[in-house]
Each structure stands twice: as structure tokens, then as C-alpha cells.
Design a protein that fits this description.
Distance between the termini of chain B: 37 Å
Largest sheet of chain B: 26 strands, antiparallel, barrel
Number of helices of chain B: 4
Strand content of chain B: over 45%
Structural class of chain B: mainly beta
Strand content of chain A: under 5%
Number of helices of chain A: 15
Radius of gyration of chain B: 31 Å
Number of domains of chain A: 3
Structural class of chain A: mainly alpha
Oligomer: heterodimer
Helix content of chain B: under 10%
Largest sheet of chain A: none
Shape of chain A: elongated
């Protein structure tokens, strides 16, 4: 009842918000974008990042860049032919898209008006690699000026923002593969997440090393409303997107499985079967240690060393161990599945 | 005019890309003025590549080909494509495909008019070859009814009735979607995918033969048929303004399983006993979410999210049992009518009140509200006898979290980040062990850049979790504390050094240490530590020569204790677990050696897992588990010959060797009453392999 009330309320809010849009929505009309004001640079936007790169900081001739200072992309070509050549294969280089930099001021849309660049003999220009000491915020603001929403709406306060990551750390702004290819994406992420690469070599792993499951299949590196930059709002929602058979809801639940898959699974790789944190019987014994003999319940509390001479104990260890009998470990929908055996 | 253009749009989409692009081209070429960038620059060639070839795998290696389809000795086709074309009016198409000659193929086609619309079609397959060493006497593998041959007797004729089969599944997925750029910075996107997962997996099965229960259960590993279909729809309406952003999303997931149950005969009593288990039920998930953000003064940004989801499941129940000799009460209902409502809400404020200070505050709420009806089920134990009637206990929780972060830049070379988070989780189900847990976390990270070529970082985090009174269930050891509910102190420490020694040489060293201490647990998990050390380098002396290397060490240790009658209520045993991993990789590439490019990549990864069982009742009588071990060696060598600008010949060699020791599998026969009583296993073995692969291909490149 409460759920339906909330759903109705949300629907009403949404209809109100979008009523204006829906009534005027049209497609294929060329979008008219206003000419962007050049990014204003102040001394605080620069960071002393080393003696070799202090020229910008000292001179700071870019302060007060104005729109009158645009020279046009032709002026850039003389020295930067290599950069401009690749722009054709980048979405940023498409003049026909009114949102793209080359439909506006060309190179100067992102790098700032070029007139001071000439006046200052090469120092005054916004470098997205930070070569002139541009601050992280300034460099990211250049990109976020156009790419603020959508998958980047949670960038602010995301862990990558907190770590002072810059768009340029992962993206090659001028190149064709600005949106990182499936075949190369994991290596981009492994540059920092080195332990995750090692985990993909383990006996049980998702096909990450084969590039058939890649980081962005589960994570949004630009920030998310879920834990660990997951694209969904919870760990289990994320796992269910590929493993919908585990979703239920089931008649008989195994509560940790309903709450958080990672309580039992090490998702990037494990040496135990099915990505488990530990071998079967001991993993279960971390939570189960029944003491009564009724119905044989106390078998779960047993001391299970590797005693191969006692055959009645071994089936708790080999094969699928506890899951030899408690097969519906993620939940059972069988009326006789109260202890997850059916 | 608007209507005409909408109709044109629809026509473009349904009539195919080629016609669509040409129509759009005609219209827009007339409208567009000369581009700012001279054509001489933007017509710089775009690089396209189509690769065709043949490869040969020299050995059968099931695990090697688990996800790649290279599991069998023999030849295979190589097919890759990476091509695109852009037009001056913004029209484009892109094709990207890999592994086209294998059952792990991926093919994506995308086309559209940049800034107006695009659509995609995608097809991909993903095999999962799990095991080809399994055997079973059951017939009907892949069906929902497993039977035994006439006259089958596990004690006399098992071996003659064993048949090999393969545990493998394959996913096939087709996806399509469209993105539209609407007026006034609005976008709309919708995509749909259908996936079929088909194959055979393994599952356990058990049948009881009266009481006392534990000594009268027979079990068997059996083949589970997999035939899943999943349909996904995502739709999003997006507004992206300079000051405000808005996303409205709808997500739908429909899961159907062609098999509702599996029936099997008891391998130990094939004439008199059989059982039936349920398989994953059909289910649905619908979710609607609204996310809005707006800029505020002082470089601040406020965002809010509300998401409502609904998981439902209402598949008809199986009967209590297939045992017709039992007297049963009627089922309380014919299907579950299960429903779980998911709610997520988030409010987040970020601010840069002054240039050197970055602040963020976040409130997050997650709720899983299980509305599934509660009934009493007079269930049957393992298709044998009536058990004690039990009620289902739908599980719900509410989680509130607060995150506060501050990042202050002291100077051009130093910054400090502080963070605090508080999480409160309330779990609701009948006889919950612990209803409430709270955790406080404090973290600090100091970053220093003493020189333009050096980054240093130190990280520390401490967390403490406790909660309401812990109530152990009636049958549970009163000292047991489940580790996700138990009181816990957590410490994380980390250090990082990045050095750009020269503009050609980069190296990095990172060390992390995590420790969880379950301070009030005497039974269950009591402690866990995890140190990780990584080092890597990259070296590029010239634009045509590059090399890299990395090493990662990880050690996962934990301690747990368990119950034993003689020691009750004190722990009767404890165990120490240690998994150690070493992974090492190195590679190099040299290009422009005349017409040749060459490269090599090598990986070495090994692990060792130990379990040390300590019997606290009868010390020194323990039989310790053998270590589990894995060792992976992989070498890839490749060269390419640039015959001319269009044609490149490629030759690559791949050697991989994998060895594993696993006590749960090694030497365990399908049926051996002297070592494993009353159980029929699949007799699988560790999937060691050593294989060589050679691939020869030709790439046609064009502009």
C-alpha cells in the first residue's frame, strides 16, 4: 500500500516535471548552442607542480582571457598538425554536431583563446594534461562544461574525484577511441587497481582477463549512487543484472545471499570454486554451528579435519561439500525447501 | 515540418542505416556552412581494420578455453573488425567485432547522426566451459528427468554405466537501442536485450530414508538443465543543462526458466526412491528512478535521487514431494506471490567554498521491503518423511548511511582528506539474530608531491561496528556471531609512491594492509587480515620501443572457531586459513623495425592455500588438509609485417601452462564407500593443461 502510494507520488512528480518537455519535444531539429564564454583563469587555478613547469604560474598571462582572443583552428595547425589530424576520428572533431568543440571555437573551445598563447610565447593555453600547472578542478571543468550530466552526474564527491583524478588520466581526448574500447579498458583501470588484475588470474574468475566482462559492465568510474561505484544501487542488484536466476524472491531465503553476494563471493577472482571466499565447509561454518542433534543438525558444527578414514564425514568436505545436500544456497522456491535442500 | 521530420526519423530507423544516412546527408549538407576546420585537416585518414586468419590449438585444454572457446585441439577461424566511417554532415557508422570465428564472438554495429540520434545492434556469445571430466550413470542429461539404466546397482555395475559429459553453458545475447537528442538539451535513450543461457550445470541432490536422518541420507551430484531467457529494457530521459541536470530511468528485467524442476532416481535405491528439486523460478524486476542535480552558489552542487524497484515471483509451487506414500496436507497456496520492494534515496551536497577546500555530504537510504505473504508449510524432509511445519520468514532491511568528506589543499604540493561515515542497518525477519548494527568509519589520506616527478600518499582508515543484542537461534551455539552481524573493529592502512624517474621511465609501489577483528566472537570468524603489495614499471625509451612489468603479492589470512560437544560452550576447534598469491607480468613491444613490429608478454601467477585445523579437545590428532596450489605460466609472442600501407600480416604464438592441486577433487572417485559414504559424485579432476596456440592472420587496413 505504502509502496503504491510512493509510486503514485513519484509518477505525479515525474509527469509534472516532464509535461512541458513532452508537449514540445521534437527531434532532428538542429540544436542551437550558445557560444561558450572562455574559461576564466585565476592564479588559484594553477598549482606549482614542479620547477620546470612554473612559467605559467609566474607569468599567469592567461588571467582575463576574453572571447575577443579567439584565433581559429587554422592558427593552431601550423604547430599542432598531429593533434588536429586525429580530431577527425574523434567525436569532438565533428563540426556537424553543434555540441562538439569543433562546431564552436575549435581547439580554443577547450584550450582557451589563443591570442595570449602567441603573446606569451607558448605558455598561455589550457593544457588538459596540466603541463602548465593547471589545477585538477580547472582541467575537469573544461570537460564537465559539456559532460556534466548522464553517466557523470555523480562525479562530484565520487572516489575518483576525491583522488584528484583528471579526465585525461583515462581518456585520450583527441583520439578515435576516446570512449575506451572493450579490449583496452581493463588495462586502463589496472594501471591503478593493480591487485584486481592479479585476482583475474585465479582459478575461479569472471572472464575479465578475456575482456568478456570488463570493468564498466559493473562499475561506473565517473561515480554512482551505489557502493564501490557500481552502476546499480546495491551489490545484489548489480549481480542480478547477469544472474537473474538468483533474484527470487524465494519462499525460503538464505539471508546473507539476499543481502550481499560479496559476503560469500570474492567477485574479481578466488582460488576456491564459484568465486567463494573460502572452501565450502569452512565458509558455511563461519556462520553455522548448530549444537543440537535433532535431525542431525549438529553436523554443521563438526570438527572437519582431513580425516579420510571416516567416510561418513567426507561428504561434508568433497564434491560440493555442504551444497551436496543444501543445494539451493541462494534460496529455494520449493514448499519443502525450508533448509534449502529442494 | 516537425511531424514530417519525426516521420523521417522513424523511417530512417526502420528502413535501415544506409538509406537513413544518405537521406540525412542530403538534407544536412545543404544546411551546413563550411566547417571552421579546413577539410585538409579533418580529412586526415581514419584507420579501419579487418582481420581474417586461422589459428590452431595444439592440445585439448578445457579450462584454457573456458571463456574463449579454444578448449579443443584443432583449427579455428580468426575474425576481427574495427571499422567506421564519418560524413561531413555528422552521419556515421561504426562496426566493432572480435572473436567472430569463435563461440565467444562479439559484434556491435552503431550508426546515426552525431548530435541528433544513433542506434546500435549488438550480438555476442559467451561460453562457460566448466568441466569435461565429469561422469554420471544418469540418462536424460540436459532434461528435467534423470533416470538410471535398468538393473543399475551402484555397488556392482556403476563403472559400466558411467557416461562422460560436459558441464558447460553458453550465453547468446542480442541487443538493440536508440539514443535521441531532443530539443533543449534533452536526450532520450532506450535499449532492449534478449539473452538465452543454455547448457548443463551440476547440482547436488539428496534423499532421506527415514530417521535418524544423518545416517540415512544418500546424495548424488546430478546434471542441472540450464535454459534461461532474460529480457532487459532500459529507458532514460535526460536533461543536461549548465545549472541543472535531470535523469528519469526505467529498468525492466524479465527472467524465465524453461525448466521448473529436476526429478531423479536415487542411485542407491533406484527402484524404491526418487526425488525432485525446484529450479530457479521465473521472476520480474521493474525499477523507476529519478535523479536531479542543480548548481548552487560557492561552487556547490546538490543532487537528489529516488528509486523505486519491485521484484516479483509467482511461479506455481512444486508438490511437497514426489513420494506418493506420504500423507500430505494441502499447500497453503499454489504459488508464492512473492514481492520485494526496493527503495533507494540519496541526497548529496558538494561544495568548494574556497579554492583549497572541497566538501561533500551525502545521505543515503536503501530499503528492501519483503512483502511476501507468510504461511505455514508442512514440508517433507528430502522426499522421505514429514518434518516440523515451518513458516517462511521474508527478509527485509533498512540501511541509512551518512558520508562526510573534506579535502583541503594546504599548499601546491600537499593535501589532506578526511572522511567520516556512519551506517545503520536494521534487519527484519522472524527470529533475527541481531536486528540493528551501526558502524562508524573514520579515514584520512595525505597526499604529497615533493617534486614534479613524485607522488606520495598515505592512507588510514578505522571502523567500529556494534549493534543491538545478539540473540542466537535455539539450535545455534550461543557463542556464534555471524561475521556480517558481529561486533567488528576494522583497520586499513595504505601507502603509495609514484615516480616518473624520467619522461621515459615510470615506476609505482603500493602497499595496503587490512585487518578485521571480530572482537566479541568466540565461535565463527574471529579475525581476518589481508596485506597486498604491488609494484610496476613502464619504460618507453623511444616512440617505437616500450616495456612494462608488474608484481603483486597478496596474502589472505583468517581465523575461525567452531563447536564441538566435548568442549561446549567453549570452542572445540579452531582453524587458520592462509591464501597467498604472487602474480608477475612483463612485456615489451618494438615497432618500426623496418616493416616489422614485434612484441612479447609473459604472466606468471601462483597461489598456495593452507588450512591449519586445531582440535582443541584432542590436540595433535588432527589430519591436516593438503595445500591447494595453482600455477599459471603464460607467454605470448607476436610479430607483424607491414607488407604495405593496406596489408599487414600477423603471426602470434601463445603458450599457457596451468597446474592445480585441490584436495576436494584430486583422487576423489565418483563412488568409493571407503572414503565417501552414501554419495555419488561426478568424479571430476583438476583441469590442468599445457597448450600451444599459433595464429596467422592478415589485416586489411583502409582509410
Amino acid at each position: 500500500m505504502f509502496y503504491n502510494l510512493r509510486l503514485s507520488y513519484l509518477s505525479a512528480v515525474i509527469l509534472l516535471l516532464f509535461s512541458n518537455l513532452l508537449s514540445s519535444a521534437e527531434i532532428l531539429e538542429p540544436v542551437t548552442e550558445p557560444v561558450k564564454e572562455p574559461i576564466e583563469i585565476t592564479p588559484e587555478d594553477t598549482v606549482e607542480s614542479g620547477e620546470a613547469e612554473h612559467a605559467f604560474k609566474k607569468a599567469n598571462p592567461c588571467e582575463g582571457m576574453t572571447a575577443e582572443g579567439f584565433l581559429g583552428t587554422e592558427a593552431c595547425v601550423g604547430c599542432h598538425q598531429d593533434k588536429i589530424a586525429t580530431m577527425h576520428s574523434s567525436p569532438h572533431g565533428r563540426k556537424a554536431d553543434p555540441r562538439s568543440p569543433f562546431a564552436r571555437q575549435g581547439c580554443e573551445t577547450c584550450h582557451g583563446p589563443g591570442v595570449s598563447h602567441f603573446d606569451a610565447k607558448g605558455n598561455c593555453m589550457i593544457s588538459l594534461t596540466g603541463r602548465y600547472g593547471e589545477s585538477v578542478k580547472l582541467r575537469n571543468d573544461v570537460c564537465l562544461g559539456c559532460h556534466k550530466g548522464g553517466p557523470r552526474k555523480h562525479w562530484a564527491s565520487s572516489i575518483h574525484e576525491a583522488e584528484d583524478m583528471v579526465c585525461d588520466n583515462c581518456h585520450s581526448i583527441h583520439s578515435r577511441n576516446d570512449v575506451i574500447h572493450r579490449e583496452s579498458q581493463t588495462e586502463v583501470c589496472f594501471a591503478c587497481h593493480k591487485n584486481i588484475r592479479a585476482q583475474t588470474f585465479r582459478a575461479s574468475s569472471h572472464p575479465i582477463a578475456n575482456n568478456r566482462v570488463i570493468c564498466s559492465d559493473c562499475h561506473n568510474p565517473h561515480g554512482s549512487a551505489g557502493p564501490a561505484l557500481l552502476k546499480q544501487f546495491s551489490i545484489n542488484e548489480n549481480c542480478y543484472s547477469c544472474h537473474a536466476e538468483k533474484r527470487g524472491p524465494f519462499l525460503w531465503e538464505h539471508y546473507p545471499a539476499s543481502e550481499d553476494c560479496t559476503l560469500c563471493h570474492r567477485v574479481h577472482g578466488s582460488n576456491h570454486q564459484a568465486l567463494l571466499n573460502k572452501p565450502g565447509p569452512q565458509l558455511c561454518q563461519q556462520c553455522h554451528s548448530n549444537i543440537t542433534a535433532m535431525g542431525g543438525l549438529n553436523h554443521i558444527g563438526r570438527f572437519l579435519d582431513f580425516d579420510s578414514t571416516t567416510s561418513t564425514r567426507s561428504r561434508f568436505i568433497v564434491g560440493q561439500n555442504c551444497v551436496n545436500c543444501h543445494i539451493k544456497i541462494h534460496g529455494s522456491n520449493h514448499p519443502s525447501g525450508a533448509v534449502l535442500q529442494r | 515540418m516537425k511531424i514530417k521530420k519525426s516521420l523521417l526519423m522513424f523511417n530512417l530507423l526502420v528502413s535501415g542505416f544506409v538509406a537513413g544516412t544518405s537521406l540525412a546527408q542530403e538534407e544536412r549538407i545543404q544546411e551546413e556552412p563550411e566547417p571552421i576546420v579546413p577539410l585538409a585537416y579533418i580529412s586526415e585518414p581514419v584507420f579501419n581494420e579487418i582481420e581474417l586468419g586461422i589459428g590452431y590449438t595444439f592440445d585439448d585444454a578445457y579450462k584454457f578455453g573456458r571463456y574463449s572457446d579454444l578448449e579443443n585441439k584443432g583449427a579455428f577461424l580468426v575474425g576481427n573488425i574495427d571499422a567506421e566511417e564519418y560524413f561531413t554532415d555528422g552521419g556515421f557508422w561504426v562496426v566493432h567485432g572480435t572473436g567472430l570465428g569463435l563461440d565467444s564472438r562479439y559484434l556491435n554495429f552503431k550508426a546515426g547522426l552525431q548530435g541528433s540520434y544513433n542506434f546500435f545492434l549488438q550480438y555476442d556469445e559467451l561460453p562457460n566451459y566448466k568441466d569435461d571430466t565429469v561422469q554420471t550413470p544418469f540418462t536424460g542429461i540436459g532434461s528435467d528427468n534423470l533416470s538410471l539404466p535398468s538393473g543399475f546397482d551402484i555397488t556392482t555395475n556403476l563403472n559400466s554405466n558411467m557416461n562422460s559429459f560436459q558441464l558447460q553453458t553458453k550465453r547468446k545475447r542480442i541487443s538493440t537501442g536508440i539514443n535521441l537528442v531532443l530539443k533543449k538539451r534533452w536526450k532520450f535513450a532506450v535499449d532492449y536485450s534478449h539473452e538465452n543461457k543454455h547448457g548443463i550445470d551440476s547440482t547436488g541432490s539428496a534423499i532421506a530414508h527415514g530417521v535418524p536422518l544423518m545416517s540415512n541420507i544418500t546424495s548424488a551430484q546430478i546434471a542441472e538443465p540450464i535454459d534461461y531467457d532474460t529480457d532487459l529494457v532500459n529507458a532514460m530521459l535526460h536533461y543536461g543543462g549548465d545549472e541543472g541536470q535531470l535523469d528519469l530511468k526505467y529498468h525492466m528485467s524479465l527472467f524465465t526458466n524453461s525448466n521448473a524442476s529436476v526429478d531423479w532416481q536415487d542411485a542407491f535405491n533406484p527402484v524404491s526412491a526418487s526425488g525432485s528439486i525446484s529450479l530457479a523460478p521465473d521472476n520480474e524486476f521493474h525499477q523507476l528512478s529519478l535523479n536531479a542535480g542543480h548548481s548552487l552558489p560557492f561552487s556547490s552542487h546538490l543532487s537528489a535521487l529516488l528509486s523505486l524497484g519491485r521484484m516479483t515471483q509467482n511461479q506455481n509451487f512444486q508438490p511437497y514431494t514426489v513420494n506418493t506414500a506420504l500423507t500430505l496436507t494441502p499447500l497453503p497456496r499454489n504459488s508464492l506471490d512473492g514481492e520485494v520492494q526496493l527503495t533507494t534515496a540519496q541526497l548529496k551536497l558538494t561544495s568548494h567554498p574556497v579554492k583549497k577546500l572541497r566538501l561533500s555530504a551525502e545521505l543515503r537510504y536503501n530499503e528492501r521491503d519483503n512483502q511476501t505473504p507468510v504461511d505455514t508449510y508442512d514440508y517433507v524432509v528430502l522426499d522421505s518423511h514429514n518434518g516440523i511445519p515451518a513458516q517462511n520468514r521474508p527478509y527485509s532491511y533498512k540501511k541509512n548511511r551518512i558520508n562526510l568528506n573534506a579535502n583541503y589543499r594546504f599548499s601546491a604540493i600537499s593535501s589532506l582528506r578526511f572522511g567520516f561515515s556512519y551506517e545503520d542497518m536494521k534487519r527484519r525477519y522472524t527470529d533475527a539474530e541481531r536486528e540493528d548494527t551501526q558502524e562508524n568509519t573514520l579515514l584520512a589520506k595525505w597526499k604529497l608531491k615533493p617534486h614534479s616527478t613524485v607522488d606520495l600518499a598515505l592512507y588510514a582508515e578505522t571502523a567500529s561496528r556494534d549493534g543491538s543484542e545478539y540473540n542466537t537461534p535455539v539450535n545455534e551455539n550461543p557463542s556464534m556471531r555471524k561475521y556480517h552481524l558481529a561486533d567488528r573493529d576494522r583497520v586499513k592502512l595504505g601507502a603509495l609512491v609514484n615516480v616518473m624517474a624520467t619522461d621515459k621511465f615510470f615506476m609505482s609501489l603500493r602497499a595496503d594492509y587490512n585487518k578485521d577483528n571480530y572482537i566479541n566472537s568466540t565461535i565463527g570468524l574471529t579475525e581476518a587480515t589481508q596485506p597486498v603489495v604491488s609494484a610496476d614499471f613502464s619504460y618507453q625509451p623511444t616512440t617505437s620501443i616500450s616495456a612494462y612489468g608488474y608484481y603483486t603479492y597478496e596474502n589472505i589470512e583468517s581465523s575461525q572457531s567452531g563447536y564441538r560437544t566435548a568442549a561446549y560452550p567453549a570452542p572445540g576447534w579452531n582453524a587458520e586459513f592462509e591464501d597467498t598469491f604472487d602474480s608477475f607480468g612483463i612485456g615489451a613491444k618494438i615497432t618500426e623495425l623496418g616493416k616489422w613490429d614485434i612484441g612479447a608478454d609473459m604472466i606468471y601467477s601462483r597461489s598456495n592455500g593452507t588450512i591449519r585445523m586445531n582440535d582443541l579437545v584432542s590436540p595433535v590428532t588432527e589430519n591436516q588438509y593438503p595445500d591447494t596450489k595453482t600455477e599459471l605460466n603464460s607467454v605470448k609472442l607476436w610479430t607483424s609485417y607491414n607488407f604495405n600501407k593496406q596489408l599487414v600480416y600477423k603471426l602470434s604464438y601463445w603458450f599457457e601452462d596451468y597446474n592445480a592441486d585441490n584436495w576436494a577433487v584430486d583422487g576423489v572417485l565418483p563412488y568409493d564407500p571407503a572414503s565417501v559414504a552414501n554419495s555419488l559424485l561426478l568424479g571430476n579432476e583438476t583441469l590442468d593443461y599445457s597448450t600451444h596456440v599459433i595464429i596467422f592472420s592478415a589485416s586489411y587496413r583502409y582509410h
